[in-house]
Amino acid sequence: MERRPPRRRSSRAGAMHGGGGEQKQHRRPQGAASRGYHQLMGPPAPGYYTAELVLAFLFVAVSLAILPLVLPPLAPPPALLLLLPVGLLAVLVALAFVPLDAHSHLIVAAAR
């Protein structure tokens, strides 16, 4: 199979892309914006879960396992309190269909 040498850009194509054949050197700005996240915020913690967090998880897990066996059963809540999650869901569904720029529509509608 025959190999061809790589094509060179014509001077016209080079002029369109910022110069004829010369390599642009990209310089990073010097300052706070050029520093990485870890340089600004310090090194990351060695472990994601600390000992205190693991103990808190264990405490919650043991409480959820043992307390229902120890505590007496609770009376059912009032019927109106059962409608609270349904109302919250209805509000969330209504908010899902509100356009993102609803505030600007309200201002325009009030100005008319």
TrEMBL record:
Highest taxon, organism lineage: Eukaryota
Positions of region (Disordered): 1-38
Membrane topology term: Multi-pass membrane protein
Where in or outside the cell it occurs: the entry states: Cytoplasm; Endoplasmic reticulum; Membrane; Nucleus
GO BP field: positive regulation of organ growth; response to hormone
Give the Basic residues compositional bias ranges.
1-11
Give the transmembrane region(s): 48-71, 77-98
Keyword vocabulary terms for this entry: Cytoplasm, Developmental protein, Endoplasmic reticulum, Membrane, Nucleus, Transmembrane, Transmembrane helix
Gene Ontology cellular-component terms listed: endoplasmic reticulum; membrane; nucleus
Family affiliation: Belongs to the plant organ size related (OSR) protein family.
- For this entry, the protein name equals ARGOS-like protein
The organism of origin for this protein: Paspalum notatum var. saurae
